[in-house]
Amino acid sequence: TDNFDYAQYHTLDEINAFMDMLVAENPNLVTKLRIGSSYEQRPLYVLKFSSGPNRPGFWIDTGIHSREWVTQAAGIWFAKKIVIDYGRNQAFTAILNKMDILLEIVTNPDGYHYTHTTNRMWRKTRKPNPGSSCVGVDPNRNWDAGFGGPGASSNPCMETYRGPSAHSESEVKSIVDYVKSHGNIKGFISIHSYSQMLMYPYGYTKTPVPNQPELHDLARRAIANLASLYGTKYTYGSIITTIYQASGGTIDWTYDQGIKYSYTFELRDTGRYGFLLPANQIIPTAQETWLGLMTIMQHTKDNLY
Amino acid sequence: LKAFEGDKVLRILAKNEDQISLLQDLTEMDQLQLDIWKEPTHPTLPVDIHVPFESLQSVKAFLEANEIEHYIMINDLQALIDEERHEMQSTRFIEPRN
After folding, report:
1. Mutate to test the interface with B, among A158, A160, A192 (most CBs of B within 10 A)
2. CB contact under 8 A, B36 and A272
3. By the CB < 8 Å criterion, does B54 face chain A?
């Protein structure tokens, strides 16, 4: 994986080959778990980085919206960063000595493949909708957290179509089942692009979460650390106050499952390129995001509950 | 492969809640085949919409008739996609670093 080109976008096959290489090179640190299958029967892989048994988990997912290519690319960079820094970077080593990191690089593989082969602008899953010519569900409106409320569409032709029922999408249900069966995930970060935001629950209601002061302060510190590298400006707050009302979102569900440190990132940029962020932005984006992730992971490690 | 020749991405800046409401109506018009990159929710947040070439006139007319400020964020979506694809293909032919 030293020769892998982290500064380019890659196909699904290339990403899968990268994961296999990473596991082969680091057999004592990295394992590849299959947590389920997509609608089109592609495997859903999670890389588990673990330095010992029976640790709490810290989840990171990238690429649930397939066209947000910088997120999958950043996920690849994070995976390599983890194996480089473990044993070399004191702060990170302390984190991985206390918690496992669970990284799902391509959360919506059918959509990702579709963006490479057919429609670069595809966002949703690829499951057909009975009675409609429109395909796919927005997997960030499909979670059982205010499902069906405002901020999601009941129209299969819309980009924010919520699906027929909560967890109807296997890409979502597989994570739900994994999180429940794991039972000890303490932090959950779902990564999107673009807009440059760091947000915590809720999206489906204006009611503040009980841990809002702590989550707000941690978000402030995370974006300050992120900005320390290139000065990239992020906004932060709850989803509903920072961006918009969105029901059925990922981190609302994880928070309601008891995962206190639930956040969602919106990576670069703020509107020049949108989802077509040039490849030369991948590494700077990943580097600065890693600093934000480090702040959240360190706080989680120091405040296990 | 779906082509996006002539498609543009508009950045729309609503002045008030009334304009947000008008934009919400616009995004519900399925016949325009709009791809909403950033939804209309609050006047402080920009709205980004990928508009297919066939719908450009209708959308521009709607925005101008309602005096909603907007500008072109991406002038030719297909050109950017072609550039991205070219970049990916060209790097595949570069010898791996030793």
Report:
1. A158
2. no
3. no
- How many helices (H) and strands (E) chain B has is answered by 3, 4
* Chain A interface includes B90 (CB < 8 A): no
Testing the interface with A: which of B8, B36, B37, B81 to mutate, by most A Cβ within 10 A? B37
Closest CA to A72 of A64, A63, A80, A81: A63
Length of chain B: 98
| DSSP assignment letter at A169 | S
Q: Under an 8 Å CB criterion, which residues of A touch B?
A: 3, 5, 8-9, 117-121, 155, 157-160, 195, 243-245, 271-276, 278-279
pLDDT in tens, chain A (305 residues): 999 999 999 999 999 999 999 999 999 999 999 999 999 999 999 999 999 999 999 999 999 999 999 999 999 999 999 999 999 999 999 999 999 999 999 999 999 999 999 999 999 999 999 999 999 999 999 999 999 999 999 999 999 999 999 999 999 999 999 999 999 999 999 999 999 999 999 999 999 999 999 999 999 999 999 999 999 999 999 999 998 889 999 999 999 999 999 999 999 999 899 999 999 999 999 999 999 999 999 999 999 99
Q: What sign has the CA pseudo-torsion A90, A92, A95, A100?
A: negative
ipTM summary value: 0.91
Burial A104-127, CB ≥16 within 10 A → b, else e: bbbbbbbbbbbbbeebbbbbbbbb
Closest CA to A267 of A245, A289, A283, A287: A289
Alpha-carbon torsion, ordered A67, A203, B27, A269, to 10 deg: -40
B3/A contact by beta carbon, under 8 A? no
Nearest to A121 among B30, B41, B50 (CB): B50
Q: What are the respective helix, strand and coil percentages of chain A, to the nearest 5? A: 35, 20, 45
Catalytic site residue A171?
no
Whether A173 and A250 have beta carbons less than 8 Å apart is answered as no
Query: Which amino acid makes up residue B31?
Result: Q
